[in-house]
Amino acid sequence: MRCFSVGKTISSALMMLQLVGVGATDIQGSIQWNDLCPGIEDLRHHTRVVLDGGLRKAMVAHDGGFIFRDIDPGTYTIDVNAPDHIFPQLRVDVSSQPPPPAPTSPSSEAPDGEPLSPAPPPGPISEVQFQATYRKSYEMPKASFDLIGMFTNPMMLMMLFTGLMMFAMPMLKDSLDPELIKEVEEKQGRMFAAQNRIQEGGVAGLSSLLNMSDSPSAPPKQPTTPARKAGGKKRR
């Protein structure tokens, strides 16, 4: 009786394993070598093929192949996580329906009631193929000296303009009228004084700065003397 129960338990376990395996499919694919990734030597050792964002991971063989075993029916995404290359993301639909059986001719040796071509279990999906679309570069090229780029820099233009004004201002002053230079210096002095008073909080400086104009100052008025009357007192 004990031997019979052990055998029954083993047969039940085998039957459960068969039921679990029904509908499971192997997803098989490969990486096609191209100019961006010519061989397995260009892939780093920790390159992995990832199923559905980390549900399963598979290593890449020397010939570029990989396989995911016993995948349940459903829709999955497959990515290649490579540090130096970029691969497209692919979508795989695993169907629970087995492929249609191949037609066969009836045989006289087959007993009555036994199917001639039973439905085979779902086979592996071998249409998944990847190709690298871009190769990453982590080295920054050294910038060469560019004379035109240096003179188009705004800071460089400001420095050149300042240096030009330092050399050109003395020559410009020598060519101007001394009286005009003196008038400009006086206006600049009044303007600086008004700005200083504004910073100190004075209202008089603000009014003087607003009333300041570029027109020349009016000539001073001459004092007027009262006119004598025509008819004065006669001396006796």
TrEMBL record:
Q: In the record, what terms sit under GO molecular function?
A: carbohydrate binding
Q: Which residues cross the membrane?
A: 145-169
GO:BP terms for this protein?
polysaccharide catabolic process
Q: Which UniProt keywords apply?
A: Carbohydrate metabolism, Membrane, Polysaccharide degradation, Signal, Transmembrane, Transmembrane helix
Tell me the leader sequence span.
1-24
Would you tell me the Gene Ontology cellular component terms? EMC complex
Going by the entry's taxonomy, the superkingdom of the source organism is recorded as Eukaryota
How does the record classify its membrane topology? Single-pass membrane protein
By sequence similarity, the record places it as follows: Belongs to the EMC7 family.
Query: PANTHER family in the record, alphabetically?
Result: ER MEMBRANE PROTEIN COMPLEX SUBUNIT 7
What this protein is called in its record is ER membrane protein complex subunit 7 beta-sandwich domain-containing protein
Q: Which organism is it from?
A: Botryobasidium botryosum (strain FD-172 SS1)
